[in-house]
Amino acid sequence: MIDAHIHLQDERFDTDRDILIRQAQKRGVIGFFCAATRPEDEKKVLELSQKHSHIVPFIGTHPWFADEYCAVSLRSHLKRFINAGIGEIGLDMLKGKNNQMSVFKDQFEVAALFKRPCVIHCVKAFDHIAALLKTTKELPPALLFHGFSGTVEQAMFLKRYNAFFSFSGAALFENKQKARILLSRLPIDKILIETDAPDMRPPDRFCANSSDKRNTPENLYLIASAFAAIKNMDTTSFINVINENAKRFLSGLKYE
Ligand SMILES: [Zn+2]
């Protein structure tokens, strides 16, 4: 299975990153879409992708760090790394920086120009993103709304722009019923799964090692089987579809 959104570069993984990657692989994780959040960690993400062939790098600046954005370094990395997608970028009306809109727009344009798939963080910003999609001529080839928390109607609108939606294990908390309903209603060919590790830790019973207070990449297999049950599918068929979806999202990039 493929973890569609993870931050393996996070310093909380500095002591045991390779071990955690291996453990996840043993549990059947065959790919990691590893997303930077700011210029400072883009290099780390790119280096990890060179070291591990299963890591697909996504580089870009998150709305929380919009004031650190560097347009020049993003463009130069993209020229050098033809296998890099863009992410995580987006809009966050609760915690985004003042300049988040211009930073998002610039990165969105770059994604279209370089024809790279794009991972989007969207919190209370659907209307802004919908307006941008309607008015922009050249769009990125594919969009992934990670940790999606919108409505089915919003998802159906975004679907027209080759959007996919990924769900993290946080959707398994009792009070996240809205996310589970959304997961149950969205078309299966648009769904991806993610850990968003080291954050978005699922409830203890979906953690391979419940004494580890971080969310770790190997938790994906427990999340996948819980999501398969929500979709009324057996885990193997669910994972097969998810893997195909992940490849379609990446299409255009080199991927094996
Ligand atoms: Zn994230």
Q: Would you write up a description of this structure?
A:
There is one protein chain. This protein has one domain (about 1-250): TIM Barrel (Alpha-Beta Barrel). An 8-stranded parallel β-sheet has the order 1-2-3-4-5-6-7-8, with helices on both faces. With about 260 residues, it is of the alpha/beta class. The relative contact order is 0.15. It has 9 helices and 8 strands. The mean pLDDT is about 95. The longest helix is centred in the last third of the chain and has 16 residues, at about 235-250. Helix 8 (about 220-230) packs across helix 9 (about 235-250). The chain binds zinc ion (ZN). Zinc ion binds near residues 5, 7, 35, 88 and 196.
Top keywords for this entry?
256 residues, alpha/beta, TIM Barrel, eight-stranded parallel β-sheet, binds zinc ion
Q: How would you summarize what this structure contains?
A:
The protein contains nine helices and eight strands. By secondary structure, the protein is of the alpha/beta class.
Euclidean distance between termini CA atoms = 13 Å
The global form is: globular
Give the SSE order as H and E letters. EHEHEHEHEHEHEHEHH
Largest sheet: 8 strands, parallel
Quaternary state of this entry equals: single chain
- Supply Rg: 17 Å
